[in-house]
Design a protein that fits this description.
Length: 344
């Protein structure tokens, strides 16, 4: 009883008040992904196409974050649209080709959710190349999240750790996209300090500034061309390529770089394997596991399902309950013994 009460409390906290009793609808948008999009993390994500359905939240707990930052949007696969509702899926571990930074709390989870059509955010829907008289330039991939920056066609774009403002043609802006092929950045030629970026030292297109809002954001450069007291350097952040002007003295040598690879921590049991179906409490389909994930504390059990509290945003308390069939759940000792979970 106490476990069931905790599960209900978690769902109530994530879903907010409901106007009246909700029952799952029988219809849903048709399957068949045709595009991708981004949705603000602060938007309402419903577990069914019904305004009375429970919602889940992806909003950051960092209240100081600027609302236009692309890590405040969720990249999604657009599955279908019907009656003003858009069916979407989170990307699981397929986010490398997309411009919105991955959300670690969603890694391994391909969740089926629904949003109002108007919740889809603005993105670049074609690749953008602009060259400026001062020798600087910018390239944007498809799917870069955008936010209006004043009047006209000015937009602020977030590319990894850096951001800038660009002027875009109307036909380059939309709400659905197909991702550009990923490009390997190559070996770095040097780096710029976070202090230079926070001060907006790099110049793009005469008066444009390239800067960062990250606390620590030293940024690699991949080409350096000396021009007297200035240098033109190339930044290759996520989904962009920027050739900018900087004072020559702020370019640091590649010899000073410290590199290393982080070691991933394996998930603690119990865990679910890729392909494991996920359910909401009550049995409605919630999505699929895309890589081995730890499931966290067990908060509810039924004859067929075991349910677990999950956090869907970074550094947050568990805010939603997800369930797996008992036969799909790996036992605590299975990983050490090299065994597949029961029923697989």
């Amino acid at each position: 009883m106490r476990a069931a009460a905790l599960a209900l409390a978690l769902l109530a906290g994530a879903c907010g008040p409901q106007r009246r009793q909700w029952r799952p609808p029988s219809d849903a948008p048709a399957d068949g992904a045709t595009s991708f999009g981004v949705v603000p993390a602060s938007a309402d994500f419903y577990i069914a196409p019904d305004a009375r359905a429970p919602t889940v939240s992806f909003a950051s707990t960092q209240a100081t974050r600027a609302p236009w930052l692309s890590d405040e949007v969720v990249a999604v696969r657009v599955i279908g649209q019907r009656r003003g509702w858009v069916a979407v899926e989170t990307l699981g571990d397929d986010g490398a080709a997309h411009c919105a930074p991955p959300r670690p709390a969603l890694r391994g989870l391909r969740l089926r959710l629904y949003v109002h059509a108007r919740a889809l955010g603005a993105v670049t829907v074609r690749e953008v190349d602009q060259r400026f008289p001062d020798g600087t330039s910018i390239h944007l991939a498809r799917g870069v999240p955008l936010a209006g920056a004043g009047s006209g066609r000015l937009f602020r774009v977030q590319l990894g750790e850096v951001n800038t403002v660009v002027r875009l043609d109307p036909n380059a802006v939309g709400t659905r996209y197909l991702p550009s092929p990923p490009v390997e950045p190559g070996p770095p030629a040097g780096w710029l300090s976070g202090d230079a970026l926070r001060a907006g030292v790099p110049i793009l297109g005469q008066t444009g500034r390239v800067q960062t809002s990250e606390a620590e954001a030293n940024t690699l450069v991949y080409a350096v061309e000396a021009a007297g007291s200035e240098a033109r350097v190339e930044l290759r952040p996520r989904c962009g390529r920027l050739r900018v002007r900087v004072p020559a003295h702020v370019v640091r040598s590649a010899d000073d770089l410290i590199t290393g690879e982080a070691t991933a921590t394996p998930p603690a049991p119990p865990f679910a394997e890729p392909g494991t179906p996920l359910f909401w409490p009550g049995g409605r389909e919630a999505g699929t596991v895309t890589e081995r994930i730890g499931l966290g504390p067990d908060v509810e059990s039924t004859v067929d399902l075991r349910c677990f509290a999950r956090a869907l945003r970074a550094r947050a308390e568990p805010s939603v309950v997800l369930c797996v069939r008992r036969e799909s759940l790996a036992e605590p000792g299975a990983a050490a013994r090299g065994l597949a979970p029961p029923g697989r």
